[in-house]
Amino acid sequence: MRSKRPPLLLRIAACAIVTTAFADARTPAAAQTNPLWTEVEVKNYLPHMTVPEVQRFLERSDMVLIPVASLEQHGLHLPIGTDYINGVEQAKLIAQEVDVLVAPILLPGQSPYHMGFEGTITLPSTLVQEVYVEAVKSLINHGFKRFLIMNAHGGNRAITTFIVDRINQETAGIAVDLGAASAPFRDRAMAATAPVPDRTVLDRHGGTPETSSSLYLMPTLVDMEAAEPATVSMPDHLEAMLPEVLAGDPTALTVFLAEGLKDASTGKGTSSSEMSSTGVWGTRDPSEATLERGRTMTRVFVDAAVGFVRRWNEIRPPS
Ligand SMILES: [Zn+2]
Questions:
Q1: pLDDT band for position 197 (50/70/90)?
Q2: What is the whole-number distance in angstroms between the Cα of residue 280 and the centre of ligand 1?
Q3: If you measure from the C-alpha of residue 34 to the centroid of ligand 1, how many angstroms do you get, rounded to a whole number?
C-alpha cells in the first residue's frame, strides 16, 4: 500500500468543495451539481462537442487525431492511466493550434508484459486494431478524411503501424503515424532545445522522461513522494548488451528491445514484474524528473506535430 498525501491542487479543490457546499445552502440549483466535476470544455475535443459543433468543424477541417493508449502499471508514483491521459492531453494541446478533431477511442491497449502488477488491463493486438479501424470507418461516414494516428505507448507501436496501413488500404481515409510523420520536424526542434539524454543509465518505462512529461501534462496525478529508484535485474545476456544499448548503438537497441519487456508466458524472463521491483524499467531515480523537462519535451512534440499538420494541409488540402 502506498500512503499518499493529496497534491496541493487537490487540497485546494477540496477546500473549494467545502466552500461551495456552504454556499449551496442558499443556492439550491448549485447544490444539485456534481461536487467532483472539474472538467473544462476543450476546443476540438470530440467527447465535449455537440453535433452542431462537429458539423461546423467539418466545414473547417477533415482531419482527426486519434491517440492509441494503454491502461497499465507505471511504477509507484504514476497512475495506471498515464499513457491514456498524457496522450489525450498532448492531442488536445495540438488541437488548440491547428484544426484537428481529437477523438480518443480506447483506454487500454496491448500491455501483457505489465500484467504482473495490479491494475494493468491488456487486450489482444488484433482486437485493438479492429476497434480503431471500425471507429475510423464511423468518422469517415461523417465526412472525415485524414487521420493522424498517435501512439502513446511503446507496446502499441506495431498496432499503430497496422491501423495506419489498414485505413489506407481498406477505406477512403488517409492515415499517417503521427510519431513518424512529425519526426523530421521534431529532430530540428530537439537539437535546439531538448536536454542531452543520459547515456549512462537505463531510464525507460515510468522513468524520468515519462515522469517529467506527466509532471507537466497531469500534475495532480503524479505522486513524487512515492517515487523511488527501482532494483532492476534482467537475463544475463541482456545485461551484457546494456553498455552498448546505453551508448546509443542502434543495432544493440533493436536486439535488446526484441526481447525486453515481453509477456511472462513467453519464458523470456523480461516482463516488468520479473525485471523491476517497482515496475519502472530503469535504474535512474524517477525523482530526478522535472516539470521543466516535461514542458520542453511536450513543447517539442506539439510544435513538431503542428508543423506536420500545417505542411500536410499545404501539400494536400482538404478535397
Ligand atoms: Zn507509459
A1: low
A2: 10
A3: 30
Query: Residue 192: its pLDDT value, please?
Result: 59
Cell readout for 101 is 478533431
CA 26 to centroid of ligand 1, rounded, Å: 45
In whole angstroms, give the CA distance from residue 195 to residue 190.
8
Q: pLDDT per residue over 2-22, tens digit each?
A: 444 455 455 445 444 444 444
- Residue with C-alpha cell 516488468? 272
Domain residue spans of the chain: 12-41, 42-232+276-315
Q: Under CATH, to which class is 42-232+276-315 assigned?
A: alpha beta
Helix or strand run (H / E) with residue 141: helix 125-141
Give, rounded to a whole angstrom, the gap between the first and last alpha carbons of the chain.
Answer: 55
Cα pseudo-dihedral 123, 67, 62, 297, rounded to 10: -160
Strand partners for 45: 102
Q: Output the CA 222–ligand 1 centroid distance in Å.
A: 13
Cβ distance 113 to 261 under 8 Å? yes
